[in-house]
Amino acid sequence: MANTKCTIKDIARLAGVSKGTVDRVLHNRGKVSKRAAEKVERILKEIDYQPNPIAQNLKNNKVYRINVLMPSANDDPYWAPAHYGILEAAKEFKPFGIIVDEFFYYPNDETSFLEKSMEALDPSPDALLMAPLFQKEAEITFKKCQELNIPVALFDNYIKSLKGKIFIGQDLYQSGRVAASLIDKIIDRDARISIVHINLEPHMELKEKGFIDYFEQKGGRHLITTYSFNTESSVDFENDTSIFFKENPTISAMFVTNSKTYRLKRVLERTGKKIIVVGYDLLEQNIKCLKEGTIDFLIHQKPKQQAYLGVGYLAEHFLFGKEIPAQDLLPIDIITSENVQYYLK
Which residues contact 284 (CB under 8 A, 6 or more apart)? Predict the structure, then answer.
């Protein structure tokens, strides 16, 4: 017989004992005779009894706090979908005693990251979910979490030195290889290619490595060069990129390693020639460039899904005791002007 919906009253009737006895056996509290305990345990085994952890949490008023540390979407719109993913998961799990709080740092400021990470840990949450952009500061935060015995999960950006920690995101190295394979199918064998970093961060170098390794393993004759630009000053960025294209008029393709591909729109249009461009992320400005033809392909990193899954895995671990996967690498989707509308729902 299997019935996971049996109540304490049902179990007591089947075992021929009182409800109080069943309660004491289930929760391992108070004194119960050996014979009565054996009767209850036999019935529990027969009906394949499974406790309802959610009901137990609600009954005990148990609250789990998950704090999220991530860059501010006000400073980088890439993070807006991740913020919405956090809100969606928080709303879904709130009725079951899961409280989610967000702590935002400036994406170009290591000090801000550290300050906000300490704020996120000050109330001593049950878990920390973070999107770390800075390796050294992430290591400091992780060490603090270890001292406080707070579980940590990462999303979006993988920190190599934190190997073994829970990570939800994409294989950044492989996404670089995907970008290379797209370009390889279009351009001539000896064409020039540029890898462009805008506001360089460590994760971009993983993408660059995947891109370069692809062509090296293919034995191609492409001349591949890497350039970095900074958007801190719009005037300097405009001047630097204009000079770059004037000095490199024979570039056939470009791989931009983050979501800021749209920042190159004007200077690309001024070249007067078609350059194959592969970038990342479904920002409104990138989608506009994709539809206009300035960008040819976008790799979708699914920031909303990453953030939602991060909260969800932690919440289900607390509520149901589910094991959290050490790594959840999401598919690498290639977006074009012809399929982008299906990703905007």
Answer: 77
- Each residue of 222-260: b (16+ CB within 10 Å) or e? bebebeebeeeeeeebeebbeebbeeeeebbbbbbbbbb
List, for residues 122-175, the tens digit of each pLDDT value: 989 999 999 999 999 999 999 999 999 999 999 999 887 876 679 999 999 999
d(CA 107, CA 133): 7
Q: Tell me if the domain spanning 64-170+303-330 has CATH number 3.40.50.2300.
A: yes
Alpha helix positions (H), the chain: 8-15, 19-27, 34-46, 53-59, 80-93, 110-121, 135-148, 172-184, 202-218, 234-247, 265-270, 284-292, 303-320
Query: Under DSSP, is residue 3 helix (H, G, I), strand (E, B) or coil?
Result: coil
Kind of pairing between the strands at 297-300 and 333-335: antiparallel
- Residue 222's identity, in one-letter code, is H
Q: pTM higher than 0.70 for the full model?
A: yes
Domain 172-300 has CATH 2.40.10.240: no
